Every structure is written in structure tokens, then in C-alpha cells.
Amino acid sequence: xxxxxxxxxxxxxxxxxxxxxxxxxxxxxxxxxxxxxxxxxxxxxxxxxxxxxxxxxxxxxxxxxxxxxxxxxxxxxxxxxxxxxxxxxxxxxxxxxxxxxxxxxxxxxxxxxxxxxxxxxxxxxxxxxxxxxxxxxxxxxxxxxxxxxxxxxxxxxxxxxxxxxxxxxxxxxxxxxxxxxxxxxxxxxxx
Amino acid sequence: xxxxxxxxxxxxxxxxxxxxxxxxxxxxxxxxxxxxxxxxxxxxxxxxxxxxxxxxxxxxxxxxxxxxxxxxxxxxxxxxxxxxxxxxxxxxxxxxxxxxxxxxxxxxxxxxxxxxxxxxxxxxxxxxxxxxxxxxxxxxxxxxxxxxxxxxxxxxxxxxxxxxxxxxxxxxxxxxxxxxxxxxxxxxxxx
DNA sequence: ATGCTAAACGGAGAATGTCTCCGATTGCAA
DNA sequence: TTGCAATCGGAGACATTCTCCGTTTAGCAT
Lengths: 191, 191
Known about the structure:
The structure is a homodimer. By secondary structure, chain A is mainly α.
């Protein structure tokens, strides 16, 4: 065989990066407007790239969905930090739970689709660098330390219940309903 | 125009009925084994009928799924009657919630798919003759009357939270986790 | 600048799935 | 039996997913 070339580190090509962002942008509006089942080829076409390019950047539909919402998920994670800094433990937890419900509620179609695909909702969130799981774990830990929450509560269980609560978004007057349910979860979690 | 024929009431043909049942049977095992996304044509082939026959009996994938699980849903409804007859209100409610979680947990793939499609989980259950919604409404009403549950609790909200709880089925030791969560919901729902 | 090369592109097309249409078939009633 | 309406089945039109590979292009070295 011939001499092996030293693998030179190359900067990623700017067109690749630009395409990637175009795809993400188009996909985001398309997903929220028409649901998560739209044709990926149509997304590619709208983004002005070929199907091959789209599939090279995002091997699966899930990968694309996850990439689309990773930034939003990190915003949720940032809110956790903010709440933890400025609020009492149980208030921070409640506020974050409500924010979570509000956030997920506006993305119903997408979350449902992810549910179908990954079949394990916690995996869905852990896919995004554990951002969400870490957020709720931190909040719950603090609330346990302050004595507002029973010690044997599994934060991830709470997260799963929250996802169920997010389903209320499809009924009229859902914000009030969500608030009641979050309150039920908190009261039921007391020591 | 010619004389209008009197619309004679005819018994459904036996082959039609048999085909319908064959399809349901095949679909049930296929759905639970390979998820809700399997090719409907393959179901038709396995059932020994043409695609046209399948689509005539069940116009959409949802219709097929709903038909497949209608019998199981009615079994859940029957359990409600049984529990209400033999248990104290809050115990009946708890037992039924646990049964519900257990039931839904084994059908993860299907429920997730239905979620994606109908996008309103309560609609999913009301599709089956309101069996499920009536069951939980009855249980909650009784528990409110006996003073175990706060009066302003919306039964459907509780149902939605339960569906979220069902997601725990994907983690090890989920029965214990589900039990804890149901308990949290009940405690949080006290007056 | 210029040439080289790996990386990225894009779209044709194979594979798969959905759903319809309509000629053939068949059970039911008279 | 016979007529006919209900039912059947599968070919085929259409949509979608995803891959393959010839072409293009950005970055690096000279």
C-alpha cells in the first residue's frame, strides 16, 4: 500500500455550515406550521439544497427535530439557572414546571412525534446533552434540601408526569388547568 | 327516473365479517410486535385480503388502531364498575389508575402513535364511546363525594397526567415508580 | 495565482408505502 | 336458479424516504 497521508485538520467548509443552518431554519417553521410529518424532501427543496445534503447533515428525522429544538431546550435550562438564583426552592421548581408545560404545549406536534419515535421520553431530553434532566434534577435537589419535597422523589418521574400535563394544552382554558395540575404534583410531593 | 327501491335491511355478509375479524387479529399482533407504523398493505397480505378490503373496513390507520383496542378499552371500563362496587372510593380510584397505567404501559407504541395522530389525547379515548372518560369521571365523582378528593378537580386533567405517568414504563423498576407517582397525584388531590 | 484533493453538493432513481379504482366474484333473497 | 348489490382483490397512480455517484467547490500548499 502507499504511504498514509497525515490527516490534516481542515476548517469545516463555510457552505456546509450555511446549508446546515438554512435547513434548520426552514425545518423549524415547517415543523411548527405543518406538524412533524412533513416531507423531508420538501424541506430540502425549500432550503435550496438536495435531498442528499439534508440527509448527510441529519441522518434521521429525529436527528433533525432534535437539532431544531436543541436551542429552545437550552433556553429552558437557562431559565432553571435563573429561577434557582432568584427564587425560593419550591417556587423555583413550580415556576420552572409551569414554564416547561408552556413550552412543550406550543410544540405539541413535535413532542408527540418524538414520543412515537424514541418511545422513551426521558431519552428524548437526554439526547440534548442532558440539559433538561439536569435542570429538573437540580431543582428537585434544592427543594428536597429545603424540606419542601419528599426525599424519595425521582426527578425524572416528575418530568414524565409533566409531559402528561402538557397534554392539557389541547383543551380550552388550559393554562389554568395546567396550573392546577402542577400544584397537585407539588402538594403531593411534600414530605 | 325509475322507481326507488325500498332500502332492504340486509344482514352483513359472512365473508365480510370474517375478513374484518381476520384483519383485526392480524393487526393486533402486528401492532404490538412491530409498532404502529407497519405497512398496512402487509397487514392486508397477512390477513389474506387485498389492500382495498382493508381500507374499506378501516378507512384510516387510526380507525384500525381504535378498533383493535376498543375491546381492551372496554375491559378497563368494566374494571371501573367492579372497583366502584367493591372498594372504598379513593381505593377504587387508586386501583383503577394503577390498572390504567399498567394497561397503557404495555401499549406504548400504539398510544404514542395515537397521540401523534389525534393530537388530543382525550379525544383518543372519547373515540371509543367515551368509555374511559366516563370511567374516570365516575371514580372521581365518587371520591369527591366521600371527601377524599378536592371538588374542583377535573377528571380529564387527571387522565392526562396519568398518560404522562405511563411513560415511566420505559425505565427499569417502573411499577414502583408508577405507584409513587399515582400516590403523589392522589395526595395532591386531597381537599 | 494555481493546482490538488477531500469534502460537500444535488438530484435521479430504487425501494417502500399509501390509497383508489374498477372488473371479477360471491353471498343473499326471491 | 337467477339477479344484483355487496364485497373482494390487486394493479397501478402517487407520495415519501433514503442512497448512490458523478459533479462542484472550498481550503490548503506551493
